[in-house]
Amino acid sequence: MLLAHFFSAGRVTGSDLLLVFWALKLPALGGQIAGLINQYPAQRNILSRLLEPLSAPDDLELSEAELAEIGTRDPTVAARGIALEFHDGSVLAAGHTILESVDLSIAPGEHVAIVGLSGAGKSSLLGVLLGWHRLATGRLLIDGKRAQARDIEALRHETAWVDPAIQIWNRSLLDNLTYASDDDDALTVGDVIAAARLRGVAQKLPQGLQTLLGEGGGLLSGGEGQRVRLARALLSSTTRLALLDEPFRGMDRTQRRALLAEARQWWASVTLLCVTHDVAETMAFDRVLVVEDGRIVEDGAPKSLLARQSRYRELIDAEAAVAESMWQGDFWRRLTLSDGRLKASEAL
Amino acid sequence: MADVGIEKGVARPDPVMMEAMRPFLWPLARVGEGIEELSRRSGLRPKTGSDSVKVPAALAAGNPRNLSDWFDWAAEHLGIEATLVSTPVPELPNLLRVGGPAIFSSLMFDVNGVFLLVGWRRGRPLMLTPDLRIRPCDPEHLRALICWPREGPLIPEITRLVRATGIDPAREARVRAAMLGEQLAQWQIESIWALRLAPSASFLRQLSRVGAFRKVAAMTGIFAASYVAEIAGWALIGSAALGGTFDPSLFMAWLLLMATMIPLQTLGGWWSANLALDAGRLLKARLLAGALRMSSDSIKRQGVGQLLSRVVESQALESLSLNGGMALLRSILQLGFAAWILGQGVAPATHLLLLSGWTLLAIALSWNFFRKLRRWTMTRLDMTHELIEVMVGHRTRLAQEPPNRSNRPEDSALQNYLQISGAMDWTSVSTTLGVSTGWVIVGLIGLVPAFVGDLQVSSTAIAISLGGILFAQRAFSGISAGLSAAGRAWVAWYQVAPMFHAARNKTSSQTYVTLEQLENSAIKTPLIDAQALTFAYPSSNETVVEGADLLIAHGDRILLEGPSGGGKSTLAGLLTGLNTPGSGLLLLNGLDRHTLGDDWHRLATSAPQFHENHILSGSVAFNLLMGRQWPAPDPDKWEAQQLCIELGLGPLIERMPAGLNQYVGETGWQLSHGERSRIYLARALLQRAHLTVLDESFAALDPETLALCLDCSLKRARTLMVIAHP
Fold it and tell me: In degrees, to the nearest 5, what angle opens at C-alpha B158 toward C-alphas B155 and B161?
């Protein structure tokens, strides 16, 4: 192009410098455009992935009115537990049936223990009440009304949940305790700390209640973390349903017994479902469910189940046998570590 | 593929080839000396100094797994890396050409031995002989020797086939070779160890070995040459324009100059891309090595989000440091040329003064931008960390957080972030645009005194000055971009530095102890000998374990009880080498931690508590056998399956469509609490360590399953310590 211009003009003037300058800029600009075009697919992919969450289904947001309604419920109703009814419920996950033929009726304020082999579906039953699973068939009635998704959502505000899978945040101990409660419940923290046997823990931590607990509660041991989770659940005053799933893992037998009694006393008038492997402790309950292979195979008072040949009785016997032969066997060399000191100890 | 004798249906290797290669064979007893010499001759280690690596007697037997193990240990001891590589049979000649230095093991001679390949020159491989000389050998002999284990079994059949078709005997050898090549196209040659610089070696040495410094020097030369060509071109066209005449030959010269810039720039781009690839690869290898060697104390208290941000920042470091470095290099060159041009122009002193002053201004503005950028990056990383924590605990949040409080933390964090981003963006704009555009104005102002004075200024000089100003403008925009990229790379470096430096940690044991020796020495010494063991976490001053005395004999079954928070898991960590005791003695099989290094974990292992143990994304078989060896040979997989059935996981494996190969983890098949506990238990038991510690492994199991699993553990573990709350 430049050649043509110069040959036609026959001579070169100063203004031609300008022409050359801009002409030489063209390749650089072309390079920039090429680079941008190269980047376009990658940038478009990034953008589409960033926009993905916008098209995800929304959480059910309860309206202001519904929230207010929960807060100002009739005190007599508020103090009582939830009434639950399952009619022929079943739960599917990834094409597999994890619960089926669930027919269950729980009166308000009833304390029910749930036992069974691991993997039987006990946690899944609690999962339906928390909203992790939906009933594939059948109906769930809460307080006599057929439960929609919104009702499960509203139920969460009145549920106390204790489970080793609950996250302990990397915030102060106090923040972790008050996480699940409304702001005005914070005043009863002292009672809850005593009830959950957290006094020693709070004392041990370097900054007391303000100590950051580390990622996932890393600063605490397993049993101490469980007590924090229990305390978090105890603190809420709007509880009408308590769901406990292996709530006392990591603690020794005496502590487990004491804390179970404490929890049952605290939630005396609340509907309580407790999944546990401590089958012997469930004898104190009024009602026990045995879940096996996704079905509720036994349902009744512990004493009556014990009286006859039942799965419950087999589990009780198995537990006693393990305690007797395994843990008390004389091939064990027994050591105890408490307060940092290691000592040999004797069998009970 | 010369004469191959076949006797009784079994092929024998070519005796000529065997005799030719025999002088190069190193007996196993001298492998240590050989590997040391090889690494020195190929430049992987400094020429002087020797620390001879002793080969244990058991190695002379030549068990391939032991040999690989020993090569790993010896290489780390010498500061290099021996990687086991495998190559498809047809690719072997390629590997021989570029793969040196390398070690090949061979079982073909009467004495088991290895061959050491130094390199390749003029079409022949250079081998190191046992009398420490480097001699070339016939490439075909070497290839035949290495491929023989694969080819040997196939030769009788192929020879029979070839002879049956009645092909001309002269071509028989070629046809046989072609058929062999086709048959073996899918097969791999293993037992080749390539020697390389270890990722833990000095990073500068690694860079120089891939020729990074040479490439940088070459690229600098190319940039300089292209700028010279550009300036010369302008000089030509400028003189033509201002002179007023049009000279075709001058014009052609100018065109030629412009044309030479094209291949120069292409070459520069090629080298810079190569450099980026090599440097990126080295950085990634180093960071991976560092990530695996970071002490567990330093990462235990960190969350998923913080670790993830380290990984993300490492990516940024790689791209930004190279781009920023190159941009800065070019800009400095351009500045230099601009200074020279301005020196030829109208007002040299003024312009040079202005140039240096403006450069200082650019640096100062960039420093200001860097401070804001650092603050912004830290805020961004904190937000990432919190976001990840919330994502991990999303179920907790759904179930427990009161609705009226639900978005408060995020709202305030975003508000803060917006503010900081705004401040940074404003500074960024003023830095990049202001510096380059402002320079033009300042430069033009610098021209004014020349007009005011009564000197006769020629238009050429003015043109030169203007050219210099424009050239410097390019330099300044390059400097701003380069400094900002370098600033971001510097911020990313803070995140990545711990991993980078951790790569230098030595992990292997001081002396090599084969598994057989460990087995044999086991009975006499106590397994664990601990005296006055004390441990306290660095953050608190309360001792968790105080003055513990413990003697564990082989075959002991220990039950450790105690209140929660008493320190049982910490004691388990001390015994398995994850925690370092503050004071006291701890011996495992008579050796302490400093002697055994990371081989401690081969002897003592644990199944940590539920919340500290993880199912990784992979197959069930991977999750079970990762503690032993992966990829796992079939006998190991079979044993894993048997163990699962013993632990009561049989029905689970039946239910999963892919059985043991079923993908589990976050996005795979979801396991229940009890199933997970048993997989953790199986993982620990499959390691067959001398000491197995089970930390609350039975807590999530119902009584019947518990009885099964406890029984199984008592049978399988050699020495067992169970932490439980019966």
Answer: 150
Q: Does B693 touch chain A (CB under 8 A)?
A: no
Closest CA to B689 of B637, B613, B631, B627: B627
Token pair in block for residue A248: 């006392």
| Number of residues that this document lists for chain A | 348
Is the model's pLDDT at A168 over the cut of 60? yes
Q: Is the pLDDT of residue B1 over 50?
A: no
- Quick one: which of B486, B478, B365, B489 has its CA closest to B428? B365
Of A116, A118, A180, the CB nearest to B675: A118
CB of B425 less than 8 A from some CB of A: no
Considering only alpha carbons, which residue of chain B is nearest residue A160? B400
A110 and chain B in contact, CB less than 8 A: no
As a whole number of angstroms, the distance between CA B481 and CA B268 comes to: 19
Contact between B368 and A122 under an 8 Å Cβ cutoff? The reply is no
pTM across the whole model: 0.79
Q: How far is B576 from chain A (nearest CA, A)?
A: 17
DSSP B441-492: HHHHHHHHHHHHS-----HHHHHHHHHHHHHHHHHHHHHHHHHHHHHHHHHH
CA distances (Å), A163 to each of A168, B266, B320, B330, B400, in order? 11, 63, 45, 60, 12
Q: Residue B558: its chain A contacts at CB < 8 A?
A: 332-335
Chain B residue closest to A98 (CA)?
B672
CB within 8 A of B669, min separation 6: which ones?
Answer: A94, B656, B662, B663
Q: Is 60 exceeded by the pLDDT of residue B222? A: yes
The torsion angle over the Cα atoms of residues A3, B248, B234 and A28, rounded to 10 degrees, is 20
Backbone angles phi, psi at B211, to 5 degrees: 80, 25
- Using the structure block, give the residue that is written with the tokens 């503690």: B627
C-beta of residue A15 within 8 angstroms of C-beta of residue B244: no
Given the structure tokens 């390019």, which residue do they identify?
B474
Write the residue in B244, B542, B701 that is nearest to A204 by C-beta: B542
Beta-ladder partners of B551 = B529
Interchain pair A249, B696: CB under 8 A: yes
Nearest to A116 among B389, B545, B702 (CB): B702
Is residue B233 classed exposed, middle or buried when 0-12, 13-18 and 19+ CB atoms within 10 A define those classes? buried
pLDDT digits (tens, 9 = 90+) for B600-630: 888 899 999 888 888 998 999 999 999 887 7
| Residue B520 pLDDT exceeds 60 | yes
Q: Which of B244, B559, B566 sits opposite A12 (nearest CB)?
A: B244
Contacts of A57 (CB under 8 A, 6+ apart): none
In chain B, residues with a C-beta closer than 8 Å to the C-beta of A225 are 611
Q: The tokens of B524 are what?
A: 């006499």
Place of tokens 């610089």: B197
Interface test with A, best of B614, B702, B719 (most A CBs within 10 A): B702
Three-state SS for B75-143 is HHHHCEEEEEEEEEHHHHHHHHHHCCCEEEEECCCCCCEEEEEEEEECCEEEEECCCCCEEECCHHHHH
> B398-419 pLDDT, tens per residue?
899 887 777 888 899 999 999 9
Contact B355, B339 (CB under 8 A): yes
- Nearest CB to B565; choose among A224, A277, A323: A224
Give the C-alpha separation, A271 to B382, whole Å. Answer: 41
Q: What is the pLDDT of residue B75?
A: 85
| pLDDT value at residue A130 | 92
Average pLDDT over residues B458-471: 85
Q: What is the DSSP letter of B541?
A: -
Give the separation between CA A189 and CA A268, rounded to whole angstroms.
19
Query: B155 and B11 in contact (C-beta within 8 Å)?
Result: yes
Distance of residue A103 Cα from the nearest chain B Cα, in angstroms: 23
On the CB side of B460, CA atoms within 13 Å amount to 12
Helix, strand and coil content of chain B, in percent to the nearest 5, comes to: 65, 15, 25
